[in-house]
Amino acid sequence: MQRIYLDHAATSPVHPDVAAGMVHWMTEQFGNPSSIHYFGRQSRRALDEARATIARSLGAKETEIVFTSGGTEADNLAIIGTATANRSRGRHVVTTAIEHHAVLRACEYLERQGFDVTYLPVDEQGLVSVDDVKAVLRDETILVSIMFANNEIGTIQPVREIGALLRDHPAYFHTDAVQAYGLIPIDVNEYGIDLLSLSGHKINGPKGSGALYVRETVKITPLLFGGEQERKRRAGTENVPGMIGLAQAAEIVERTRDEKRRQYAAWREAMLDVFRSSGIDYTVNGSPDGLPHILNVAFPGTNVESLLVNLDLAGIAASSGSACTAGSIDPSHVLVAMCGKESDRIRSSVRFSFGLGNTKEQIERAAEETVNIVKRLTDR
């Protein structure tokens, strides 16, 4: 059986060039970048070059990039680190109801520490209102954290408009760009972003690699204590091979971004064409102008667990939403925020996401198998 992987929003395969480039830094040039001898200096130089690559991709300074173990750590450092360092100015944080759990759980932690967190609602497409952001801002608001694009439905938030709004407010602006980075050109200065999280394994880089952009004017408290790595913002010996892999993956997605966007949009339309021609009942969740590689679809009359099991038996890997909630019996918090707790969509929605290694033929076959499964399930 040929298996088809359509869960790239959960994780993506490492690009062969990235994997090849990392091997050298695991087997030959393995020095600790904090060591002053030759081996250490070689690793330090490579780490500095990787940092410069990530900085250029965001329009940032090299000194504003903090390497982390991934998106979750970057989100935690941005939210808890910034709130803790600036609590003397206020204890109010603003976010949305559809953030990744790395953001939501960090905000819940802050609430237990005495902070006040406002969770903004979204509309039926998963969009937050800029007016709603403006309405909840207070003098004591120190941080606004709103994701760039949602990992479950692909909806892109009005980040530029929110950044413009906050230019006249002392609150810092953080965005979780884990899904958007590599598909949307991002200049942190143009968008008015003060902190930005990204992750390597979403862009065909290695797991365990990520980064947090921290504007030089942002005061932040570290979460890890030990050595003085990352300008005292993140202790611990740096994952040199991982960060080199992250930077190589970033360079590749920068070169291929436009081509990939066109390709993913075409695959998305090819899948929808099969659904339309089959006559099955379905609803697309999210904004039609969202990330092109994510297609979240509800099939009325079906159950998501049955759908995913049958898809897997047919050799197709898809998901019901964030991989970080695997094993949870709770419905998607994103779909609940969009549609309400009583909506059938929260129990019948599947996320397909495209990426490296996929072909149009695979997409069409997956769509046809999905149609067959939906028809079989709704005939019962």
UniProtKB/TrEMBL annotation:
Q: What class of enzyme is it?
A: transferase
Please list which residues make up the signal peptide: none
One of the record's GO molecular function terms? iron-sulfur cluster binding
> Residue ranges of the Aminotransferase class V domain?
4-365
Catalytic activity reported: (sulfur carrier)-H + L-cysteine = (sulfur carrier)-SH + L-alanine
Q: Gene3D superfamilies of this UniProt entry?
A: 1.10.260.50, Aspartate Aminotransferase, domain 1 (3.90.1150.10), Type I PLP-dependent aspartate aminotransferase-like (Major domain) (3.40.640.10)
- One protein family per Pfam: Aminotran_5
Q: Under which EC number(s) is this enzyme classified?
A: 2.8.1.7
SUPFAM superfamilies linked: PLP-dependent transferases
**Which parts form a coiled-coil structure per UniProt?**
none
In the record, the note on similarity to other proteins reads: Belongs to the class-V pyridoxal-phosphate-dependent aminotransferase family. NifS/IscS subfamily.
Which NCBIfam families does the entry link to? PRK02948.1
Name it.
Answer: cysteine desulfurase
Q: Which organism is it from?
A: Geobacillus genomosp. 3
